[in-house]
TrEMBL record, chain B:
Keywords, in A-Z order: Signal
The protein's name: Small ribosomal subunit protein bS6m
Transmembrane annotation, as ranges: none
UniProt GO MF annotations: small ribosomal subunit rRNA binding; structural constituent of ribosome
Keyword Signal on entry: yes
Species: Opisthocomus hoazin
Biological-process GO terms, alphabetical: translation
GO cellular component terms given for this protein: mitochondrial small ribosomal subunit
Signal peptide: 1-15
PANTHER family (alphabetical): MITOCHONDRIAL 28S RIBOSOMAL PROTEIN S6, SMALL RIBOSOMAL SUBUNIT PROTEIN BS6M
Length: 125, 115
């Protein structure tokens, strides 16, 4: 008795166990199985409204579209539907515009009230 | 590499501008461009230097200079009565060409505690 251990602890498992194969890996000698590849029918990635547009603190009209007309507060991500980066950029630009005196703080500039609606905000009736 | 923006009042805008630009050049900044963003009514009444202002002319100066100028210039312009508000802004570097579309957020992963 070399050591007080069962034989299957001394001999490496590769010798006596059945080889485990993952289901989705390629198996040798089976050409008719599906070939793993990326989804070829994937559509183009969804883009947010501002995806190609440069956000500036100077164009007050663009910034005012993401601000409430009644209180002047900035709409959240669930209302504007922008991606992470752009939402952050817009918030920073709006804050800057407030400080520099480009955009009114407590309300929306009345000349921009008839702009096309980007945010899907639902007002209570 | 910065932009400088301020707005002021009064009909003698030319003199004020000249003063500021000269002051900037004294501190060793290179003025690239000077833009007038028009004269319009301010979004809110600003009271500065014991006067309440409603209309102002906006000016934007493209600068290049050492960052040590900033504090001295802010001081200097704070003393100028004609300038209502002043600010230094870094030159905006536009990186909009890399915008890849929105990746759908995996809310489940967020709920599981991050380790």
């Amino acid at each position: 008795m070399a050591a007080r251990r069962p034989w299957w602890r001394l001999v490496p498992a590769a010798l006596w166990r059945q080889p485990r194969r993952l289901q989705h890996e390629r198996q040798p000698g089976r050409p008719d199985q599906p070939i793993p590849m990326e989804n070829p029918y994937k559509g183009p990635p969804k883009k947010c409204v501002l995806c190609g547009i440069n956000v500036d603190y100077k164009n007050v009209q663009l910034l005012s579209q993401f601000v409430s007309p009644h209180t002047g507060c900035i709409y959240g991500r669930h209302i504007t539907g922008l991606c992470n980066k752009k939402q952050k950029e817009i918030t920073k630009a709006i804050k800057r515009a407030h400080v520099f005196g480009f955009m009114p703080v407590m309300f929306k500039n009345p000349s921009f009230l008839t702009d096309p609606k980007i945010c899907n905000i639902k007002y209570p009736e | 590499l910065s932009l400088f923006f301020f707005f002021l009042l009064k009909p003698e805008t030319a003199a004020v501008l000249k003063r500021t630009v000269e002051a900037l050049m004294e501190r060793g900044a290179v003025v690239r461009n000077l833009e007038n963003l028009g004269e319009r009514s301010l979004p809110y009444k600003i009271s500065k230097h014991k006067e309440r202002h409603r209309r102002g002319g906006y000016f934007l100066i493209d600068l290049e200079g050492p960052p040590s100028i900033v504090s001295t210039m802010m001081d200097h312009l704070g003393r100028d009565i004609d300038i209502i508000r002043r600010a230094f802004v870094k030159h905006p570097v536009s990186k909009t060409e890399e915008c890849s579309g929105m990746i759908p957020v995996n809310y489940e992963d967020k709920l599981i505690a991050k380790k």
